[in-house]
Specification:
The structure is a single chain. Helices cover 69% and strands 0% of the residues. It is mainly α and 135 residues long. The protein folds into 2 domains: 61 residues, no CATH class; 49 residues. α5 crosses α6.
Length: 135
């Protein structure tokens, strides 16, 4: 609280440096000797308004639904859209394979040969080792 009193003392005395030069009207209505503006709004109310404004800015930036939470959700949304695109492509590929297996006998034969190792009568299968161990 000490820094607030120091700051308020500088405001009342008009010692705000460049701020006082640019905002002379602000310093004018904050001084205690001028009651033209402060008659309608007591000083504790002004302090309340400043603190309330600071709290609102803090909540709007760091709150549960603040700006930083929004940015985080935007990144998650982008990531989920990318995943949805990849899943859509996978779904199209699987749909194409299902259609081929329902209507194309060559696709069924190819799948039976690859996955089940089936052969036609009279065919000879030569299987090569997948990995060779060298010592």
């Amino acid at each position: 609280m000490g820094w607030i009193r120091q700051w308020w003392g500088r405001v009342r005395e008009g010692r705000l440096g460049p701020i006082a030069e640019r905002g002379e009207r602000l310093v004018h209505w904050v001084r205690e000797d001028d009651n033209s503006w402060s008659e309608g709004a007591p000083r504790p109310f002004l302090l309340f308004l400043m603190l309330f404004g600071a709290a609102m800015v803090t909540v709007s930036l760091f709150g549960e639904q603040g700006w930083f939470a929004y940015r985080s959700l935007a990144g998650q949304t982008r990531q989920l859209r990318e995943e949805a695109g990849a899943l859509d492509a996978r779904e199209q590929e699987l749909t194409r394979q299902i259609r081929a297996l329902r209507s194309d006998p060559a696709a069924i034969e190819r799948l039976a040969r690859e996955r089940l190792g089936l052969v036609k009568p009279g065919e000879t299968v030569i299987q090569l080792p997948t990995s060779v161990k060298t010592e």
